[in-house]
Amino acid sequence: MLKTLRCPVRVVWVYRKTQWVALMTTDITLSVEQIVEYYSAGWQIEIYQTWCLHKSVRQGRRW
Questions:
Q1: What's the rounded Cα separation, in Å, for the pair 51 and 60?
Q2: 17 φ/ψ sector (left φ>0, alpha ψ -120 to 50, else beta)
Q3: What DSSP line would sit under 1-40, residue for residue?
Q4: Pick from 2, 46, 44: nearest CA to 36
């Protein structure tokens, strides 16, 4: 059975290109700038991982 975890969550709304994006964190001490910076860094890592996977599949390799 699932138990609900109760902890404070901070939501920051950011307008990105053509739409609003909600960024959520449980670290309520972070500033808006820090939250955006951390999400941006994580997003860059995800894009890079996707690029690497796509490139390896095109070259006939699997990780």
A1: 14
A2: left
A3: ---------EEEEEEETTEEEEEEES-TTS-HHHHHHHHH
A4: 44
User: Does 36 have pLDDT greater than 70?
Assistant: yes
The angle at the Cα of 34, spanning 9 to 46, to the nearest 5 degrees, equals 85
- Model confidence, pTM: 0.59
Look at residue 25 and tell me whether its pLDDT is greater than 80: yes
The β-bridge partners of 24 are: 11
Place of tokens 């599949």: 57
Sign of CA dihedral 47, 50, 52, 54: negative
Closest CA relative to residue 14, chosen from 30, 35, 42, 28:
35
